[in-house]
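User: Show me a protein chain along with its predicted structure.
Assistant: Here is one chain, sequence first, then structure tokens.
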Amino acid sequence: MNMYRAIIVDDELMGIKTLKLLLEKNCPDVKVVATAIEPQAGITFIDDYRPDIVFLDISMPQMSGFELLEQTYYKDFCLVFTTAHAEHAIKAIRNKAHDYLLKPIDAEELKACVHNIRNRPASKRETGPGSSRQVIELPVKDGIIFIRPADIVRVEASGSYTIFHLDKGVRHLVSGSMKTYESYLDPATFFRCHLSHIVHLDKVVKLHSADGLFAKMCDGSMVEVARRNKQAFLEKLKNG
């Protein structure tokens, strides 16, 4: 059973507790990884945890759910608005919400909402080898973060640590050797081109051959390709 990670943002603590309980009872494959009663904390949690589903209250005193969405960097999740006001439905749809739930939330409507998320078009889900690992858990200094393999540009060894370089310049230093994390990555998509570097093949934009072979990545970084890996690397790029 695939697990879906969810975040709940609601300025009413009782609303959070009620929805969390409904999910636990009716949707066991949905795990609430974080909750927030303040919109700013919700923005941080969405960007840090990169959830599959966000249950977002529309009417909050500090900022509306619509305003919150404008400030999140990470947006690749199924958005479910929760609201006590039916008139927000049209605006929710225009904001590309997957669904909206009227408060008090009905258990059957919640089950139907999650069912539709499970059965959304395959083009909106990760497919192919390694797709069972939809997220990777990384131990960082102040806890655990969750990232998607699709967001990785490259992985770099740094002694007993590993640096994950993600899209938009996001960078995470995590404990553990690069070899530990290499097994988490789909070999059809990622290639260890050097003792200290793994690259996402789809994010190689150019090859430079002066003074050795270097791969220019989509973030502008240059990654050395070891001589012994050159032929295999080129074959991977051609056949990818």
